[in-house]
Design a protein that fits this description.
Blueprint lengths: L1 H7 L1 H6 L2 H29 L9 H30 L24 H16 L3 H38 L1
Helix pairs in contact: 3-6, 4-5, 5-6
Amino acid sequence: VARWEHKTRALSQIFGSPRAACYCLGAVILVLNCVRSHCFTEAMKSQPKLEGWDYHWTYYSGLAISAVGTLFVISSFLALGFTGTFLGDYFGILMEEKVTSFPFSVLDNPMYWGSTAIYLGWSLMHASPAGLLLTAVVAISYTIAVLYEGPFTEEIYRRKQKGVKSK
């Protein structure tokens, strides 16, 4: 959807502005994330636990991993803002420069990997093999997304820098 918007600007035309379109897409993404999290939780609850993992140390390890993931997700959102988080660059809404401060100074794509860590931690906390499998699906999905988004983001900020230098 974001690539389509970037090529056609159709959503921006429908919603009257790039910001309104980006906010609507962001709202859809948030709703879908809630649905995904609910389905993830229901899948874990409906499947057997790994009895060998149903211990305090596994629970607290999962809690710690989820806490680190939450730190990365929240700090990413605070660094990027709503439009930076929800594909604003595809709508032509760019930051002054590419964000390189924490958590981006620690790892690339901290929101994706933080979200993955939350699911991993949640799976460990529930000693859930289904949760571990679904976490792998989330990680693979994010890896594919990064393959598309990473080069796009690099290119638009390279073009922006080139445009600023030529003025």
